[in-house]
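thread: overnight batch results

M.L. [08:02]
morning all. the overnight job finished for the chain we discussed friday. pasting input first so we're all looking at the same thing
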Amino acid sequence: MPEQEKLTTSAVGRFLKLGALAGRVGFSLVGEKALGLFLGEDSREMRMAKSWAKNAEKIAETLGQLKGGAMKIGQMLSVQEALLPKELTFVLKSLQRDAPTVAASVMFQTLNGDIPHWRSLVREIDEKPLAAASIGQVHRAVLNDGREVAVKIQYPKIDQAIFSDLKNLRRLFELILETVMSSNLDHLFAEIEARLSEEVDYRREAKRIEEFRNFYATREKVVIPALVPELSSQRVLTTELTLGLTIEEARKYDQGLKDHWGKLLFRALVEQLLVFRQLQSDPNPANYAFRSDGTIILYDFGSIKELPDWLHAGYMGVLAACREGRFGDIRDIVTGIQVSMKNGDPVPQRHVDLFREALGAVFTERPYRFNTERDPIKKIVAFNRENFNELKDITFPGDVLFIDRAIVGLFGNLTALEAEANWADELSAALKS
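M.L. [08:03]
and the structure it wrote out:
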């Protein structure tokens, strides 16, 4: 069967799998809810927990076999631990892995279509990819002028597949999360669609690379690989090959260097969020690399969240209130950025107090070291699970989805490095930069 025909068949298979999955999950949940009417509270909770676990496995199995929107949405929603049943988030996290690779002969069809003369620019290109993800994969190449480059190529027709997956997954998540996130699904999926639209537009990403390189031009120790415009297009993005240590490799280095790398990661997020107001919102550890000379490398500028004025003002207001000890004002500030109860009331004060208790040590201890035993995110998730019925009545704008994702990812990366610093000082320095 020709490669193009295989891809078309795969798209049909994707649609059928998603439809079948929705049916299986829906039948399972409806059955458990009906049976629960005749059971005691303990038995009902036990059976629902088992049902969620089985459904989570079905979802992960299906999404894990797909590329494009299905796998990407699973990854995006997996960071919203506080809003999803723990059985579901546990299995969704299994999607934070590399995707299966696609044969070079298929990938080069995209090169042929977008840059017909590409072979006149390239001396050699590796057929085995350096990395594979949900939307495309990266191949190492050497240009005629001797430069080593990384060529990121989209899977053929992936842009069409993504939005087909998006519609079907919306139906699926409406079904399984109707009592959990119903008031927020419109916001979340609108935000996900916006970010996915950007991720499949490599010309937009090329523009972002130039913007971020300009922003970091005067900031030491942060490297962003240079764009190679002559070998870039709508579906092909080429940058100079710039390599470093993975986060797993970096963990083996001395603590002083890990602390330094951690400070750079922390300042990068604060500067992007509150100074540059364009946030690299995919915190996957694969999007960072580390060098023994103390530099860090930033990759992948496909998912960038721009902060509108109202949201930037809200984050700055919360920060100012925390610095000045005005914790009672935070509820009104977050209400102003559309975080409130469904009826419009401010969120309960104890939810605000939770964040102060969970994050306070990070900024008051001098120094504070991140580690798995003191993970502040785990404390927040545990609290929210205990108060789940109240939490599901809180509404929030979709804009915060990718900001939360970046912050949770930062804390995870700092924990992996066990980074230590006076983080309040690092915060102040980043805001003055």
